[in-house]
Amino acid sequence: MEKTGNVRSSLLKLLWHRIEEDDIPGLSAQLAYFFLLSLFPLLIVLFTLLPYLPIPHPDMLGMIKDFAPVEAMDLIEKNVNEIMNHRNGGLLSFGIIGTIWSASNGINAIVRAFNKAYNVKESRSFIVSRGVAILLTFGMIFVFILAIVLPVFGKEIGLFLFSKFGYTSEFIKLWNALSWLVSAIILFLMFTGLYWIAPNVKLRCRSSFPGAIFATLGWIISSIGLSFYVGNFSNYSLTYGSIGAIIVLMIWLYISAFIIIIGGEINAFYSDRNRTNC
């Protein structure tokens, strides 16, 4: 018990030191900026794939809607719908290459942040490092699709089976309770892959678990907390006018970036500790 307490104390001290040394608040602001630039290209790719997937249009943003503040969600939906309604032809052509490249900028910024956490330089060539970022971008697209498909078809299959026994209402209550767990598991898998593959360090998959657990719980709690605060205690539209929604979106992205970077620092701490013990 005492040893565990010492580890936690060392971790907290390291995190506090790293927050100042690595300028994590400033790094999070940079990452939030790249997230903003990457968000809409990523969603455009998802919506471009919509005709090829048996997924209802309203469900495409379901997972984001569960956690994002209302004002930020309205801004995302409005802009994505406007872009998709005014696009010239299908994006599943050469145009998608530029879209994927733009979407990968956010992942590329995460790679740099993780390398800083592990105190390593990017020794991979530009093509390889950008290829990793693009690969992880495709991975995120797959995770988003999985996050959409599982709830939609899982609910339909469950309703079909439970209706045979007359337990439809009971299943709906159970599904509503389990939907948060499903979202948490999907987020955990996404963060695990990100922390495992992104850094320029050879890692075991399980070594990314501590940061992935922290990022999953931290992102869910902070997103719900921010959404509750914005919805009940603050009205950014009155303070900032028409750009209030953009302010809320940037705050959400900044908090998300901060949590993701801290998760990388946690994994780096345990990686260094295990290497020292060996």
From TrEMBL:
Residues annotated as transmembrane: 31-53, 91-111, 132-154, 174-197, 209-230, 242-263
Keyword Ion transport: no
Domain of life: Bacteria
GO cellular component: plasma membrane
Compartments (UniProt record): Cell membrane
A Pfam family it matches: Virul_fac_BrkB
Keywords: Cell membrane, Membrane, Transmembrane, Transmembrane helix
Record's bilayer topology term: Multi-pass membrane protein
InterPro entries, A to Z: Virul_fac_BrkB
Main location: membrane
Annotated PANTHER family: INNER MEMBRANE PROTEIN YHJD, UPF0761 MEMBRANE PROTEIN YIHY
Protein name: YihY/virulence factor BrkB family protein
Record organism: Neobacillus novalis
